[in-house]
Amino acid sequence: MNRRDLLVWLASWAALPSSVARAQETVRPVIGYLALGSPESRRPFVNEFRQGLGENGYVEGRNVAIEYRWAEDKPERFPGLADELVRLNVDVLVTAGGTAAALAAKRATPTIPIVFTAIGDPVQEGLVASLPRPGGNITGLSFFSPQLAGKRLELLKQAVPEARLIAVLLKPDSMPENVREPRLKEIDASARVLGVRVLVVEARGPEDLERAFAEMSDGRAGALMVVATPLFVIERRRLAELSRRTGLPAMSEFREFAVEGGLMTYGPSIADLNRRAADYVAKILKGAKPADLPVEQPTKFELVINLKTANALGLTLPQSLLARADEVIE
């Protein structure tokens, strides 16, 4: 080897580490994050997701990138946004917009791994083959637990003991019939145990809400249970206002409803589900396949009570109920 060749070889060798570093930088994994709301409304949940990633050794901007797509409270945008993330060829796609977002992602790609953060019954809704063996390219976390509807009714009855008829607000097209009918039968059975009757009231869109509350008032309902759907999550402030205006104490599933002025909520912590979704993402980035990762059901539930709303409705809540609350909003 002559002197010139030696210098060229040494120069190439010296440049190798930076070339490798650049190569490693270009192949850092990319996570697609498809959400119902906006960056502002989803910030607490995104922070929990990032925290979960950090606990697994992944830091956004350092060794992982995240591509966000926001539906801005318009579920009809999910298919187009999911297609965008698929065209980017993300390494894993996280959905945070209920069944609609998860179905949009599943229809958009049969190969990119998908992790959903909060789904009712993913088996009955056609997302996975079974909870222990999801199959396909999708897995994640369910917020459904068979005893939850009965527990919500029980808590609502404790808050409003004089209620003899409880309205159930439902968006009928938010779930397939094979999911909706068993859910309603479960609610009805729980109500009979508590000695109350159920009035099912349907609302398919925002334009139906005024009519739905008028129907509840005409039926002399004493309290209301809202079955959470993307529409009712979007309209949670208006639902809370309508419940206060009509004097109807209202219960729903997620904390955000109570924050906006609903009387109370009982259900899994959405923040916790987002943090646990990061565990799935980390496992997939390290080589696990969604088909082999069981769908998890909720393990942490939170009772949130808005005492200011209770006072506005003229309710005196029993101290035993307040003592059970994870959070009391005053």
Overview of the molecule:
This protein is an alpha/beta fold and 330 residues long. It folds into two domains: 22-144 and 269-301, Response regulator (Rossmann fold), CATH 3.40.50.2300; 148-268 and 302-329, Response regulator (Rossmann fold, 3-Layer(aba) Sandwich), CATH 3.40.50.2300. It has 13 helices and twelve strands. Helix 2 links the parallel strand 1 (30-35) and strand 2. Helix 2 (43-55) crosses helix 11 (270-285), helix 3 crosses helix 4 (98-108) and helix 5 crosses helix 6. Mean pLDDT is 90; it is low at 18-25.
Could you give a short description of this structure?
The chain contains 13 helices and 12 strands.
The global form is: elongated
Distance between the termini: 82 Å
Helix-strand sequence:
HEHEHEHEEHEHEHEHHEHEHEHHE
Strand order of the largest sheet: 7-6-8-9-10-11-12
Our count of helices gives 13
**CATH class category of the largest domain:** Alpha Beta
Give the total of domains: 2
Structural class: alpha/beta
**Overall strand count:** 12
Over all CA atoms, what is the radius of gyration? 24 Å
Q: What is the mean predicted local confidence, pLDDT?
A: 90
